[in-house]
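> run fold DUF1127 domain-containing protein
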Amino acid sequence: MFHSWIARYKRRRLERQAIRVLHSFDDRRLTDIGTFRDSIELFVAERARDGQP
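> ok
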């Protein structure tokens, strides 16, 4: 029971960390990785759902 809660917490924490890092990128770098400033959260959520790094 606690393992699934801990795993969700760790995954969410990594997602928030990735969002913070991506927000620090400039627009050109974001375009290079395939996203825009307005859709960073969606970009991270899609990658997390698909299991991509």
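The chain has a mean pLDDT of 91.
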